[in-house]
Design goal:
Layout lengths: L1 H19 L4 E3 L2 E2 L7 H4 L13 H17 L2 H26 L13 H19 L38 H6 L17 H7 L5
Antiparallel strand pairs: 1-2
Length: 205
């Protein structure tokens, strides 16, 4: 949680610096918004670009990626935003160096300006934010447990097999019916007495 918060602050600070940089001087007092995007691929000229078609456009796109990455807690989006900012800044430096036959840094307003530093710093902050962020937590799905294998009871023989010797065939039935009526399988202990049978019979004529 803390890493995501710190990484988000770094990413937002980098995106802000990248978007603000084209409005500052880049080289010889010329702001970055005056450089057309086409000049970065064909060569730097003195042509002045519209704001929508200047180097501000890729930086604004990078800021949008960084904002989405912060909201979604996506490290790849934030890192991609940093690469876009640094990539266009390096490409601009290469083209200006070719046109000026080298880049100069001076304190009288000539040479590299503050805007280039903001662009580089913004790209670095975006990459640092992506490194610091922990990203979204991963959710592990628990697979359902497999049902236990169906095995016959240890005391009950499989279907179709005779009970082991020494066991009554009625053991299984009586175990399966613990609440059966008492005396179902009871055998009389002794036969009725003869005198009782004679008493119940009518006298012979």
């Amino acid at each position: 949680m803390i890493r995501n918060a710190v990484g988000s602050v770094l990413a937002l600070a980098g995106a802000t610096a990248a978007v603000w940089s084209p409005f500052r001087a880049w080289y010889d007092g010329r702001p970055g918004r005056d450089y057309p995007i086409d000049d970065l691929f064909t060569g730097v000229t003195d042509a002045k670009a519209e704001v929508i078609g200047s180097i501000l456009l890729p930086f604004a796109f990078a800021a949008l990626l960084a904002l989405l990455g912060v909201v979604l807690r996506s490290r790849p989006l934030v890192a991609l935003a940093g690469l876009v900012v640094l990539g266009f800044t390096v490409l601009w430096a290469v083209r200006v160096g070719q046109a000026e036959e080298g880049l100069v840094v001076s304190g009288d307003g000539r040479g590299l300006g503050v805007g280039v530093g903001l662009a580089f710093g913004g790209g670095v902050l975006l990459l640092l934010g992506a490194l610091v962020m922990s990203g979204r937590p991963r959710r592990h799905r628990l697979e359902p447990a497999a049902p236990p294998p169906a095995h016959p009871a240890p005391d009950e023989p499989p279907p179709g097999e005779a009970p082991p010797p020494g066991r009554s065939p009625y053991d299984t039935e009586t175990r399966s019916m613990p609440y059966a009526a008492p005396g179902r399988f009871d055998v009389p202990a002794e036969p009725p007495r003869d005198r009782d049978r004679d008493r119940d019979e009518p006298p012979r004529g």
